[in-house]
Amino acid sequence: MTMSSINIECVLPENCRCGESPVWEEASNSLLFVDIPAKKVCRWDSLSKQVHRMTVDAPVSSVALRQLGGYVATIGTKFCALNWEDQSVTVLATVEKDKKNNRFNDGKVDPAGRYFAGTMAEETAPAVLERHQGSLYSLFPDHHVEKYFDQVDISNGLDWSLDHKIFYYIDSLSYSVDAFDYDLQTGKISNRRSVYKLEKEEQIPDGMCIDAEGKLWVACYNGGRVIHLDPQTDNWPGGQRNSSQSLCRISDRLFLLEETLKTTKKFWS
């Protein structure tokens, strides 16, 4: 696939303050996403073209599908279950009770149904914040939470290789896409290394997803750019620049928000 073959179209001029976490829900032909500072979870019906919104009580940074129906989301420093029908929120677990200035950021469900999400300090300006305050966690199906590491600046993009043996992760201010060996059965990660180092002019790496060929797509914050890279070769096939501040659709099932790019249909158990 070449950059010239990619068609980008705006499907929803939502004008999010900070749009994140696009997740396709096939059962309803809908796209879920969040607007972090607006404290809204949004669902766009691709058939009716209508957007329905659910307002919560704290910044909501990611949303995922739940196997039994409904959704899970990271709200403030809490993992929560969402009931869309009655607009209710149930807290499943809370992290970092001692860090009042922290919140979750990007999150995604792994192929075994664990909900991975990381934290960060609140920004005072774009990418300006107290550093090394965040950590990476996962919520297991039995509701217990595991902490993987701390000293994170802005926990961001995450995804898994097609064979589920590698976990890819971005801490934005490191300007690096990192890889870990991944044990799908236990959820353990090990052997951290950088597979792609961004130059400062490429701007700040943010959301990320993997495609059907095992290549990574990384959205760059404050740069209006999406880069497409091969994590096995450290090769950058090219980049697609897009300055839109609204929701876009790329190809068949690849959705781009202002700062986040990912495709997922994984379910939290």
UniProtKB/TrEMBL annotation:
Monomer. It is an enzyme of class 3 (hydrolase). Its main location: cytoplasm. Substrate binds at residues 103, 105, 123. It is found in: Cytoplasm. Its EC number is 3.1.1.17. Residues 18-232 form the SMP-30/Gluconolactonase/LRE-like region domain. The lineage of its organism: Eukaryota, Metazoa, Chordata, Craniata, Vertebrata. Belongs to the SMP-30/CGR1 family. One of its GO terms (molecular function) is enzyme regulator activity. Pfam families: SGL (PF08450). Its cofactor is Mg(2+); Zn(2+); Mn(2+); Ca(2+). It comes from the Eukaryota. The active site is at residue 206. This is Regucalcin. The keyword Calcium applies. One of its GO terms (cellular component) is cytoplasm. Binds 1 divalent metal cation per subunit. The keyword Translocase does not apply. It catalyses: D-glucono-1,5-lactone + H2O = D-gluconate + H(+). Keywords: Calcium, Cytoplasm, Hydrolase, Metal-binding, Zinc. One of its GO terms (biological process) is L-ascorbic acid biosynthetic process. A divalent metal cation binds at residues 20, 156, 206.
